[in-house]
């Protein structure tokens, strides 16, 4: 199969029809969407305008693309064609185009008053989504007048919606004036204080007016109450000026522990990429000892970014030099060394949330080891994909030493997009074999993670979905007598018996041994609310219908116990992105959740939870400065400056066109605990060592202590470094490191390792090889308010 | 706004559970057809293009609802019963004579026995906390519902927007109710645009209504303790979980919540 501009792929005929009939369909579609009879232009996520380029930059970009490998050029052409042929009305990140289409529909004089109202309501929403706040406000006035003149007064629900829309226009104006155009390290950090208080207050001041009026009329509207408290925060008047009857007190947001502030230094080091929802990879792609950064964003105009870590506090944009021009539209990224050449490669996932519009290809980017990547999707056999997805995992299910790939897809309505299992043939190609192995599940899957929950040496899978019980696939090995890598494999869904099926609506998930007992536990976060009022109700301790997070403790017998309540995690976190690491090197795994949904009203903090080592997770969102209100997506923990503790990088920005925001880099202030870093290299096991399990035994004042870690990239939205960065707390010395290699079943025992050092460990070698790492300090993060003008309007 | 619409679309993914309750079109997820309308009257004969399977399903539903299958009829008796229906449709129904009245009374007695036995079995099915929890857990999973700390199983069918009630508020609500088999309608428990104080609702409804916003619909499964508990239960209602489809129309009084 070849890809070129005229390449035919599944969905081609549908797209052609869409193109031909777009004009005639527009009216019906606009009205159907407005009336809720058709799928909305957005799905529960995403967005972005892509960084605007000057003509010169665009020309340079195009010229660079012409120098890229032919396969990369073909992928770029294919993605460009998909964008050109896509229906803007069904793509949430194309709000401006939607506005134009809706206005064209409204220009037709044949519309009834009801049709006009429906279309104008949609128009007002899309004006907001496109960032045309004054126009959106004006449109709400038109809607009101039209209703009066047409004898169609608003009912209470519609009136509240219209008021909320107005409030959001003002709030967004304030966010743009301040958090975007006067951005600093405190911007939009909840609870907002210091430099986060708005310098230009016109937006929030007007929002307070609208929201107060709304609450006077609808006192039980928790959306308005939540947003009113935030608006007062942005004015520096929280809590003192918030009317007592509407106040959500500071105690609701207090941290359980003072983790110390992790300043956002993304702007200072030039990594504050301002785009929409997308993926993140932190990895040392060139083996120089420093973690580099790769990001993506989900719109088909949204480029990837690749920053080389120079090891001195600076980062160089090498996107063009790396050959990543044209690789647009990545909603998520995961990495691994699929071809065992010693260099980590990257998989780009696309099409998630877009349902029938999401028939995008994957991209497999082979790391050439010289700072460049080549798109090998076609050559590897992965081009047959074209299913909407945002989640996949690398794992060696058949233990042949080559990483296989499981892609969990999104089926919706009548369209079935079965999950795919790509078996690595060991020659740079893959064979899709989900059906023959009984794992071609149909569902709206949002997360798939791999872990060996029964410690039998075979990697299992956990699947999170929006439309049904979770799936826990136990890898039972070959289904018959044939034990070769190509044999039919047996996977058994044991989720029900294991007790890990909740919650009904969920998104990111992961395996992690949170209690250091040597058995992987499971975390899955809920993703289903009516509106932001459910989140407010959760903070207030009132009844709500939001889906909560679930932490499942591994009972060591194939079953799990839901310990969410004891762990303090039975909360409505409403996470999209997530990952875990060790904030303070105490040897207990913590996690960060990137929160939100496409609605501007879902202005909720990203949340950080610290594991206290006693089975409980402490909320440290406020004390650490992690409560970014803007939409959080892919997250990776990694020691970017090699000072021994993990920093956190997060893709920030939402789904719709105006909901872009700078990504964040939280610099770890240090906590005085010990650590060890281990880069594992598989020999018979896959070279990335994915799935290898480590047990670090240290001596402490209280005796021996064991700390566990498994090689992988973490949770399902965000790809963390494969090297193990393990906190050792107040250990006196490392007694031994035990590494279980899943392919051979052998355990390698290493001794003589020193605290606070980095080692390279090759499977089977008698000794770990010390690696000298240079570190650099983070710059001071500025929370100074700049006297910049408001946004240009 | 986008979010409610998105949630609504997302909720539509779980149509099977709505179908299970006969709340939406489509076959029952339980494999049994949803209760259908009464058989068509002779004056309105079915149009030829209507699927005959539907009529068969209606017949099955009638037989199931009236427990005809548990009366142990012979094939000849079933044929005579169907013949009686057919004759009535032709306007030539059989007379309900003394023999028919005697047989009918005997059947009524047997049906009452059966219903009493079923009611006993039903109560026994939820007699222990473990059995009740097992039912609640399975039903929640089947209907794609969440569980509250109280034991309530709940899910939003259609999100509303705006006011959410407090216990002190007066609300206007409608609800339809089904028994724990998810099939049997309990019209005696239903309400249409009922004006009531939240705190006067049974505990499970009071809790569920506070999760909702005006215009929203929710599905609630109330364990006995959250409906009529140890108090008097309405006639014809087993001491078992009850399934409510609840609509919040209005919040009439809504004081500010400090």
Summarize the helices and strands and which ones pair or pack.
The complex is a heterodimer of chains A (793) and B (258).
Chain A: H1 12-34, H2 55-67, H3 70-85, H4 95-106, H5 113-130, H6 133-149, H7 156-180, H8 202-217, H9 222-234, E1 274-275, E2 280-283, E3 292-295, E4 305-309, E5 315-317, E6 332-336, E7 345-349, E8 363-367, E9 373-375, H10 377-380, E10 389-395, E11 404-409, E12 420-424, E13 430-432, E14 445-451, E15 460-465, E16 471-478, E17 489-493, H11 495-498, E18 506-512, E19 521-526, H12 532-540, E20 550-554, E21 560-562, H13 564-567, E22 575-581, E23 590-595, E24 607-611, E25 617-619, H14 621-624, E26 632-638, E27 647-652, E28 661-662, E29 664-666, E30 674-681, E31 693-700, E32 703-710, E33 724-729, E34 733-741, E35 746-750, E36 757-762, E37 769-771
Parallel strand pairs in A: 30-36
Antiparallel strand pairs in A: 1-28, 2-3, 3-4, 4-5, 6-7, 7-8, 8-9, 10-11, 11-12, 12-13, 14-15, 15-16, 16-17, 18-19, 19-20, 20-21, 22-23, 23-24, 24-25, 26-27, 27-29, 30-33, 31-32, 31-34, 34-35, 36-37
Helix pairs in contact in A: 1-5, 4-5, 5-6, 6-7, 7-8, 8-9, 9-12
Chain B: H1 2-12, H2 15-20, H3 52-65, H4 75-89, H5 98-125, H6 129-143, E1 146-147, E2 153-158, E3 170-178, E4 191-197, H7 203-210, E5 217-222, E6 242-253
Structure in words:
The complex is a heterodimer of chains A (793) and B (258). Chain A has 14 helices and 37 strands. By secondary structure, chain A is α+β, with helices and mostly antiparallel strands. In chain A, 62% of the residues are buried. The model of chain A is unreliable at 1-26, 33-51 and 785-793 (pLDDT under 50). Chain B has 258 residues and is of the alpha+beta class. The chains are: A alpha+beta (793), B alpha+beta (258). Chains A and B meet through helix 7 and helix 12 of A and helix 1, strand 2 and helix 7 of B.
Give a quick set of tags describing it.
heterodimer, A: alpha+beta, 4-stranded antiparallel sheet, 37 strands, 22% helix, disordered C terminus, B: 258 residues, 7 helices, 6 strands
């Amino acid at each position: 199969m070849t890809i070129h501009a005229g390449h035919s792929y599944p969905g081609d005929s549908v797209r052609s029809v869409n193109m031909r009939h777009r004009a005639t369909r527009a009216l019906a579609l606009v009205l159907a969407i407005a009336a809720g009879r058709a799928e909305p232009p957005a799905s529960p996520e995403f967005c972005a305008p892509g960084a605007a380029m000057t003509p010169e930059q665009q020309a340079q970009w195009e010229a660079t693309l012409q120098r890229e490998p032919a396969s990369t050029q073909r992928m770029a052409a294919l993605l460009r064609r998909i964008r050109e042929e896509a229906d803007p009305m069904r793509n949430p990140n194309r709000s401006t185009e939607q506005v134009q289409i809706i206005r064209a529909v409204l220009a037709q004089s044949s519309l009834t008053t009801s049709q006009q109202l429906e279309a104008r309501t949609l128009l007002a929403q899309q004006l907001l989504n496109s960032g045309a706040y004054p126009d959106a406000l004006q449109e709400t006035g038109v809607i009101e007048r039209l209703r009066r003149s047409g004898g169609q007064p608003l009912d209470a629900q519609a009136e509240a919606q219209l008021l909320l829309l107005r409030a959001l226009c003002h709030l967004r104006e304030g966010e743009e004036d301040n958090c975007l155009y006067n951005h600093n390290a405190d911007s939009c950090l909840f609870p907002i204080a210091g430099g986060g208080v708005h310098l230009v207050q016109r937006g929030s001041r007007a929002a307070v007016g609208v929201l107060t009026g709304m609450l006077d009329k609808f006192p039980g509207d928790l959306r308005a109450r939540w947003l009113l408290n935030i608006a007062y925060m942005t004015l520096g008047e929280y809590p003192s000026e918030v009317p007592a009857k509407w106040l959500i007190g500071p105690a609701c947001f207090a941290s359980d522990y003072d983790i110390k502030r992790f300043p956002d230094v993304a702007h200072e080091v030039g990594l504050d990429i301002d785009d929409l929802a997308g993926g993140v990879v932190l990895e040392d792609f060139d083996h120089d000892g420093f973690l580099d950064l790769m990001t993506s964003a989900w719109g088909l105009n949204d480029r990837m970014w690749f920053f080389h870590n120079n090891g001195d506090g600076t980062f160089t944009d090498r996107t063009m030099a790396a050959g990543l021009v044209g690789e647009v539209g990545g909603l998520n990224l995961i990495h691994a060394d699929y071809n065992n050449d010693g260099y980590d490669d990257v998989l780009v996932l696309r099409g998630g949330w877009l349902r029938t519009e999401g028939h995008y290809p994957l991209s497999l980017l082979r790391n050439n080891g010289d700072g460049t990547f080549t798109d090998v999707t076609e050559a590897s056999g992965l081009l047959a994909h074209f299913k909407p997805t945002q989640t996949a995992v690398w794992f060696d299910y058949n233990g042949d030493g080559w990483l296989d790939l499981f892609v969990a897809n999104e089926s919706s309505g009548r369209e079935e997009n079965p999950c795919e299992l790509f078996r690595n043939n060991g020659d740079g190609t893959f064979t899709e074999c989900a059906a023959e192995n009984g794992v071609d599940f149909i569902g709206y899957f949002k997360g798939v993670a791999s872990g060996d929950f029964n410690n039998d040496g075979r990697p299992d899978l956990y699947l999170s979905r929006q439309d049904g019980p979770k799936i826990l696939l136990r890898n039972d090995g070959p289904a018959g007598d044939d034990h070769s890598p190509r044999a039919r494999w047996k996977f058994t869904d044991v989720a029900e018996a294991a007790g890990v099926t909740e919650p009904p609506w969920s998104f990111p998930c992961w395996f992690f041994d949170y209690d250091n007992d040597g058995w992987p536990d499971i975390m899955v976060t809920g993703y289903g609310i009516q509106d932001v009022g459910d989140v407010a109700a959760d903070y207030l301790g009132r009844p709500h219908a939001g889906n909560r997070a679930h932490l499942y403790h591994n009972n060591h017998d194939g079953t799990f116990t839901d310990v969410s309540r004891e762990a303090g995690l039975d909360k409505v976190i409403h996470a999209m992105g997530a990952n875990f690491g060790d904030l303070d090197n105490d040897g207990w795994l913590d996690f960060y959740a990137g929160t939100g949904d496409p609605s501007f009203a879902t202005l909720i903090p990203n949340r950080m939870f610290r594991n206290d080592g006693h089975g409980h997770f402490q909320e440290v969102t406020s004390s650490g400065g992690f409560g970014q209100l803007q939409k959080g997506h892919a997250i990776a923990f990694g020691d970017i400056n090699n000072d021994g503790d993990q920093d956190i990088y997060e893709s920030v920005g939402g789904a719709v066109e105006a909901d872009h925001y700078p990504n964040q880099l939280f610099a770890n202030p240090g906590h005085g605990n010990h650590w060890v870093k281990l880069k594992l290299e598989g020999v018979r096991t896959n070279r990335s060592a994915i799935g290898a399990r480590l047990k670090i035994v240290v001596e402490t004042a209280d005796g021996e202590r064991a700390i566990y870690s498994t090689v992988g990239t973490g949770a399902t939205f965000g790809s963390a470094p494969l090297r193990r960065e393990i906190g050792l707390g107040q250990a006196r010395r490392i007694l031994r490191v035990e590494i279980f290699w899943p392919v051979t079943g052998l355990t390698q025992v290493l001794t003589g390792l020193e605290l606070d050092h980095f080692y390279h460990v090759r499977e089977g070698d008698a000794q770990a090889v010390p690696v000298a790492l240079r570190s650099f300090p983070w710059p001071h993060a500025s929370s100074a308010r700049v006297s910049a003008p408001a946004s240009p309007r | 706004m986008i979010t409610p619409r998105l949630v609504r679309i997302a909720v539509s993914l779980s149509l099977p559970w709505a179908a299970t309750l006969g709340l939406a079109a489509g076959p029952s997820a339980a494999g049994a057809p949803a209760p259908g309308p009464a058989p068509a009257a002779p004056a309105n004969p079915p149009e030829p293009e209507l699927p005959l399977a539907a009529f068969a399903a209606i017949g099955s539903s009638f037989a199931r609802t009236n427990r005809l299958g548990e009366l142990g009829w012979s094939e000849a008796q079933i044929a005579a019963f169907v013949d009686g229906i057919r004759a009535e449709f032709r306007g030539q129904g059989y007379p309900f004579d003394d023999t028919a009245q005697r047989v009918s009374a005997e059947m009524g007695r047997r049906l009452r026995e059966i219903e009493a036995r079923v009611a006993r079995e039903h109560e026994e099915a939820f007699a222990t906390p473990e059995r009740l929890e097992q039912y609640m857990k399975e039903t929640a999973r089947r209907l794609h519902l969440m569980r509250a700390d109280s034991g309530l199983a709940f899910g939003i069918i259609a999100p509303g927007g705006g006011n959410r009630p407090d216990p002190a508020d007066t609300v206007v609500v409608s609800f339809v109710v089904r028994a724990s088999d998810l099939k049997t309608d309990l019209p005696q428990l239903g309400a249409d645009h009922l004006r009531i104080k939240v705190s006067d609702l049974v505990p499970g409804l009071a809790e569920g209504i506070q999760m909702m916003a005006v215009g929203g619909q929710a599905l609630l499964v109330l364990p006995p303790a959250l409906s009529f508990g140890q108090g008097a239960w309405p006639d014809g209602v087993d001491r078992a979980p009850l399934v409510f489809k609840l609509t919040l129309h209005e919040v009439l009084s809504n004081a500010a919540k400090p």
